[in-house]
Please model this.
Amino acid sequence: MTDEIDLVRCLSGDAGVDRSALARVRESLMNHLANSPPAVVSVPASAHITPYLIYDDVARALRWLSGAFGFAEREDERLVDSQGTIQHAAIELQGAVVMMGPPSVHGDSPRLGVSSMLDVTVNDVEGHYRRARAADAEVVIDLEDAPWGVRRYQARDLEGHQWQFSQPISSG
Model:
């Protein structure tokens, strides 16, 4: 394969390169590409995933998530039933949106067992960590550099959901 790569690099038109060898390599590479599955699946720009969390006390969770993690409620998305209980809400942090509601057909109380974790990329993970600590968030993993290239920490919220806040480590 090294010979093929070297030949491909020569495509700039060096006079000393055997043009028939270049043509064979090009044909071989094109056949390989045509018969290989794509390495990356293209996702439309409009596709996105929004987590939906269940909280026993949605109003309390909204206050706590705002104070501890800096989320802001999208107030126009709040739905309150006739008894004044929040049935649906959404919060946002730097463009990351999380929806929430009380236990229902959509899911049980997180106190019965947590089966998910949310990862949110933030601009300043150090400052975010200090804010969460100041709000007495239960830190599960202290601030650290993860081997896959992010600085992160993990915390559990007031009803047991696991959150990971991370920031890419600059490689410069």
In short: The first helix runs from residue 2 to 9. The longest strand covers residues 86-93.
